Task: structure prediction
Amino acid sequence: MIRTQLAPPRRDPARVLPGDGVEIRPARMDDGERLRRFLGGLSLHTQTLRFFTGVGRPAESLVRTMLAVDERRDVLLAVCGDAVVGHAMSFRGGESDVEIAVVVTDDWQGRGLGSRLVRRLLRRAAAGGARTVGMDVLGGNRKVLAMIRREWPEAAVRAASGTVEVSAMINPA
Result:
């Protein structure tokens, strides 16, 4: 499963909300330096919630992997000005139709940006035929686990080695 960290849902997933200046768009290969700065600026706590470990100075291979888009992978970025403030990716081929991972920079957490990324990513996955979503969540990530209970009360959850494996139906609405 792909690991995830995101903020609880609050707002409509509009492309840019008035006043927040955030655009959610597909990743491009020329986003490498922006993504490297984003990853390097995450707190150790946020890095651990997303990657289950600190990443320190992000390796080039990690940056390339997080930007790679192909028939099995999709990547969205939340961009404010020239700065990446959120990253969401999906992968086809796990136990669910699509597995997701999301991370939002510390300053933007709690504003619903992670939820906007998830909704957009899942709409794109559903358009490609995905019906189920899976994610791994660190057991101590109470915000995300609460969001999952609200958004997917019927989700199957299983604790395993300090993580919670989640599987749910995608609601493409």
